[in-house]
Input
Amino acid sequence: MRLYRLPTTGSIDALTLVEEDMPRPGRGQVLVRMRAASLNYRDIMIAMGRYARGGLRDNLVPLSDGAGEVVEVGDDVTRVKPGDRVAGIFLQSWLGGEASDIDGESALGGSRHGVLAQYVVFDQSGLVRTPDHLSFEEGATLPCAAVTAWNALYGLRPLQSGQSVLALGTGGVAIFALQFAKAAGARAIATSSSDEKLARATSLGASDGINYRTMPDWQHEARRLTGGRGVDHVIEVAGAGTLPRSIAAARLGGAIHLISARTGGEIDPAPILRRNITLRGVYVGSRETFEAMNRAISWHGLKPAIDRIFPFEEAKAAYRYLDSQAHVGKVVIEIS
Output
């Protein structure tokens, strides 16, 4: 079988396509024929040697997000059967409840080998069935970006109909947050430096768009759009320096969900205290969260937004395209 490895980091060019023997499932394990994988910004950081969270596997098989079909099961497997369409969960040992320290060491495409391969062996507990109406390419977008957006909006203080969500940017997490907000009957506000991207975000669920290049004090526009009250939920996925503006955009008692590893800059805690704002870090979610999200996706018939699909042989081009930030939604690699 063919798969990609990262023998070194520091450059996307280190990504290497190799041929290896097909793995076989042991007791409690499942062999999945991977059909598609999707990229997250984390994958760029790993390839470039800029990812600081935890240790990486040597000669890493990259990417955390993928979908495929079960082709073989080991002894004592009861959760799935051959022919099932499945996706791996991001943190393989986080099945439900609160995450533990050890769960952070089970991340695919980082602490554990990932899914950019024709065949991957999973423990049966590390898989979920994908919604029936989704293609393999669409199912591959769910494990990190979609679960992160769902956890942000429903993991601590569930989003309610009539509330407002401000999603920074038009990447995978932000677009999923807009789609989930629309499905919940909430107002969804998107930001971007591109009017073209904002038009695409509007077609995917945003009720309003703010161009932060032409309107650098976008926090004031977010407050204006909510009648001066401020937004209920901010999906903070942008770069350094945006957090103070996100705090200013949030309502009294609102919630800001920190997602991007790039988020940073100096923060004055006084506005957070004065206005009773919840500042919460979100690191994907559990299998339980994934399955709850899939039920909602199935019920509403939601379709993930895929910007572009690359062939397996052009994985490096997919990495570079994501790094260019030209996309809206997800970038996917088809695994032939």
